[in-house]
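Anyone? Bumping this.
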Amino acid sequence: MKRFLYELTESWKIAAAQMRSNLTRSTLTALGVIIGIIAVTLMGTAVNGISIGFDKSMAVLGDDVLYVTQWPWKPVDDWWNYRDRKKIKTEYAETLSRMIAATPNSNLVIAVPTSNLMRSIKFGGNQVDNVFVLGTTSDFIVTSTIDCTAGRFFNELESRGGASVVIIGYDVADALFPSESPIDKSVLINGQLFKVIGVNTRQGTFLGLFSWDSMVAMPLSAFNKYFSAKSESDVRVKVKDKTKLADAKDELTGLMRRVRGLPPEKKDDFSINEQQAFKSTLDPVKNTIAIAGLFITGLSLFVGAIGIMNITFVSVKERTKEIGTRKALGARRRTILLQFLIESTALCLLGGFIGLAFAYLMCFGIGKAFPSFPIHFSVGLVLISMIVSILTGLFSGFAPAWTASRLDPVAALRYE
Amino acid sequence: MTSDHVRQAGPIVIDIENITKDYVMGEEIVHALRGVTLQIRRNEYIAIMGPSGSGKSTLMNMLGCLDTPTSGRYEFNGKNVAEMDDDELAAVRNREIGFVFQTFNLLPRSTSLRNVELPLIYAGIEPERRIERAIQVLTDVGLGDRTHHKPNELSGGQRQRVAIARALVNGPSIILADEPTGNLDSKTGEEIMELFEDLYERGNTIILVTHERDIAAHARRTVHLRDGLVEMDHAGFIPELDLPIPETTST
């Protein structure tokens, strides 16, 4: 064990001396690994960023909320079976809430109606098109992670009275009120004036997925008054315990069947969805991007590894006589193996460090230049790229090191 | 001569009986050694001579445990070396044999100290003792002030002294020197031979492989090889007796 340690230290010293004395060669060889590590690391940060972006968008849906909708949140082949389903009505929410309150030990908390459509919104000379307009009740905050940077959400009184008030998303506020506070200003939606009472915290958009940043929310009764036509309605139901989501789903299915008055032999004519269903359709996409991306960038690292392998073979060849001498002095096979493995690993680690430094700077630069681009540089990533560098070194050094360790001492000593 | 014979009465270090070594060279088999029997005792000073192709180098590789014989018995300090595997042979080389090469074979980018330290690293000696021991041996060969010089900062004679220090550092049973003066001018060569003489006087066992008569003349016993067999094995080297020494012009 002790001897192994001494041999290890010796091998590191030799590796360092080798790199110093063959500086140009080492640098050029390490360049392959540097580029490989930069590519893999940047891809890693991008994949990481995409994943975080997905999760952030998912978080909007809430992991403890069930959505009663006409269409299921997954691709369906038999679309004709869903097309003719009855629309989900906002009134169901009230009925459901009453039923939930009447059920002892219910797994559900409350049902909240939402209606939505796309509209333009104006203030002064500024206009934002295709804003997601949401009509709901004051109970909405129970089901959603909505959070105001300025102002507040509408209260029960405004909700029931159908007051013309709105909460606006961050991007909407930014576009309409570039230099002033939006609170208490009146914006024009569909020819109607609405008073802004709150601005939602910035959430960030990602790959065009739904985000609170580009929406406005208003009391449902006001929404129905002005835009009842062509709106889509859903009912959101908050679950008490998210670990019992399946039970909650069963309970809600039963309640909805009662609301719709379905006899037992009839199939459900509504869908109940949760965040997870959405996730399971998006996850394969995410994973495909990750695997394809890492595979392609991994190829560049592989090319770098071949460079290291090549140079280690050259090094073994050049130092055949030295290997013979070391064997004559008592170096065992594994000592020689270790020495060359460490030389290739040291080269890869050096390349890895430099590559990582460059990747970090690039991430920093990209982050500064495009703040919305999802890029995420983590400690885990640093560790992983270091491990990848070491593995690359071991992988590329193994064949040459093995050759060296198997050299016949007599032939090696005679080699010129 | 008499005093030498008294001194040669040490225990047997190397005991070779009827060893052969065959090489396959393309289609044909080369019989490099055809049955060599040899005993070497502690504190002998022996020269192995012979023309090129005589099996001299092969015998040296056997003695140095760099290679194993095709057949025959080889015991080193009573241990059967002929059947050892690579790593066991490496351990014997490390602890029992000190190699001195014609071309010195120092690691070019390492200092004298690091070169001499190397066998100690392979022996698993801790750093402080390694450095202490290496400096001691370097001082013994007269290079106490050259410990931090690299080979290219040393003269040929100094390089060979570093190599000799490296051979001595693990306290080996034998020192195996292969043409140790082959790359040195005659004056420096003579100095190296004086160093060997000195080491011999201090109780070391020295095996000198050479084709130069005046180098072999330093040894107390000479073994002549020809065609893979021991042609002659005699005490001393007495050229004035006009012994039929084989022609040894090249290796």
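Late reply, but here is one note on the structure posted above: The beta strands of chain B are 12-25, 28-41, 45-49, 71-76, 79-80, 97-100, 174-178, 206-209, 221-226, 229-235.
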